[in-house]
Amino acid sequence: xxxxxxxxxxxxxxxxxxxxxxxxxxxxxxxxxxxxxxxxxxxxxxxxxxxxxxxxxxxxxxxxxxxxxxxxxxxxxxxxxxxxxxxxxxxxxxxxxxxxxxxxxxxxxxxxxxxxxxxxxxxxxxxxxxxxxxxxxxxxxxxxxxxxxxxxxxxxxxxxxxxxxxxxxxxxxxxxxxxxxxxxxxxxxxxxxxxxxxxxxxxxxxxxxxxxxxxxxxxxxxxxxxxxxxxxxxxxxxxxxxxxxxxxxxxxxxxxxxxxxxxxxxxxxxxxxxxxxxxxxxxxxxxxxxxxxxxxxxxxxxx
Length: 303
Prior knowledge:
By secondary structure, the chain is α/β, with parallel strands linked by helices. It has 12 helices and 7 strands. It is flat and about 95 Å long.
C-alpha cells in the first residue's frame, strides 16, 4: 500500500539508519539487489525472502518489460500492534513507500490464508516498480492497486473474503465508487476500502480481457513516457477513460445477477434461514404450551 501515516514517513530515515524499531535492534540480511531488516526471531522469514527475491524481481521484469534496478529495503515487523500504528487500515498486512524504496510487512499475520510472504512481497515490489518508472505523471491509486493485484495474482495488502464479494453487492445495488474518486486515495472505512480494492482489480482485469495484456502494458508505457492516464488510454486503446469505465460497469451488471449473488452468499443465507426456522419453531411451541396450560386451568375444578 503506497499511503501511510505521515508520522511513520518521518521516522523511516531513523529506522533505516539506526536499524532500530520500538527499542528492538534489527538484524540486516544484505543481498546484491536488496536488504531485509528483521527482528532476530524472524531470521527464517528473512532468508525465505532472500531466496524468492531474485525470482520475483525477474518475473516482474518479464511481465512489464522494465528493468528492476531498485535495491529496496524490506522491513519485517514482528509486533502486529506496532505495525497497525504505521498502517493505513487495520486490514492492511503490508505497504510500500516508493519515495523511500521501502516495503513494510506485518509478519504476525503471515499465517493467514491465502497470504504468503512470496505473494505479498511480489505485490509490494510491483508498487515500487510502477512508481520507479512512472514518474512524470500521477499514477492513479486505483490503477496502481489494480495493476499490482493483477501482476501478483492476488490482493496482498488487505484481507478479503471471496465468499462476500463487495463488488457483486455494490453492482447489484448500483453503489460502485466512481473511479475519479479513487485517483488520489482510498476510503478509510473498512467496507469501502475493500470495495475500492475489488473495483481496482476488476477494472484492470477487464482491460486485460478486452484488450489483452498488451493493452495494459501499452497504457503504462504511455504514462511512463509522460502521458496522463486519460490520454494514454485514448491513444493506446482508442477509447476514453469515461467510456471505458461505463463499459466495465455494463459488463459487471450483465455478469452479476441476484442469482449469482445468492450463490456467493448461500452459506450466510442458509444460516439466516435456519435461525428464522428455529425462532419460528420456538414461538410455535411456546404458543401451544400456553394454550395447553390455559385449557388445563379451565378444566380444573379447583382452579
